[in-house]
Amino acid sequence: MSTRSQYFIDVYLRQTAEIAAGTSRDDLARVIDVLFEAYLADKTIYTCGNGGSAANASHLACDIAKFTWAEGKRRFKCSSLCDNAALISALTNDVGFHRIFLDQLNGRMVEGDVLVCLSVHGGSGADKAGPWSQNLVSAADFAKKRGGKVVALVGYDGGALRQMADASVIVPSTPDGFTSTPHVEGFHEIYHHLICERLRQLAVELGPAASENA
């Protein structure tokens, strides 16, 4: 292996350790609380994101729905808004990309449901196509107006989603101020596995009131 690659690996892994150390434990605990409160109330959790965050949103929905199974206990209700390509393309064509998540929630989301938004920049900044992640911001706004709660997994300064969320976790910068999309998306996966493991534990700890036949 070249010396330059070894140096890159060393730096990347050092940054990873620094980010883990700097992650807010209180913020993670609050996210877990919001999701578990939805479970106790038998509400539905929805996930959404763009690009790599769309893949992370699908993975998160899978793990909340399946990994959290506790023997004899009622299961979590969770669905990703990123998984129906035909519907997403139809909505993009007919009402615009900024509404692809909002219009999936319309008619489905009820008071107490939770929308989990995953985004590197949290709806701040722009590129060739214009402002980033406005479909997430509009969906979060819709969810709040419907009496739902919003959870945000974000990076950089957290953007609009950080400000809108009832609970959020931001992937922190390293002590020297470094952050990147790979680190943010990677840590969203770490956070979501931690969250799901804790949700599973909490479900196991519940008494018979949460049985699957309740």
Molecular structure report:
The protein has 214 residues and is of the alpha/beta class. The protein has one domain (3-210): Glucose-6-phosphate isomerase like protein, domain 1 (Rossmann fold), CATH 3.40.50. It is built from eight helices and seven strands; from the N terminus they run H-H-E-H-E-H-H-E-E-E-H-E-H-E-H. It has helices at 3-22, 25-40, 52-67, 85-94, 102-105, 134-145, 159-164, 181-205; strands at residues 44-49, 77-80, 114-118, 126-127, 130-131, 149-154, 167-170. A five-stranded parallel beta sheet has the order 2-1-3-6-7. Helix 7 (159-164) links the parallel strand 6 and strand 7. It is globular and about 55 Å long. It starts with a helix and ends in a 9-residue tail after the last helix. The mean pLDDT is 93.
Show the helix and strand layout.
Blueprint: H1 3-22, H2 25-40, E1 44-49, H3 52-67, E2 77-80, H4 85-94, H5 102-105, E3 114-118, E4 126-127, E5 130-131, H6 134-145, E6 149-154, H7 159-164, E7 167-170, H8 181-205
Parallel strand pairs: 1-2, 1-3, 3-6, 6-7
Antiparallel strand pairs: 4-5
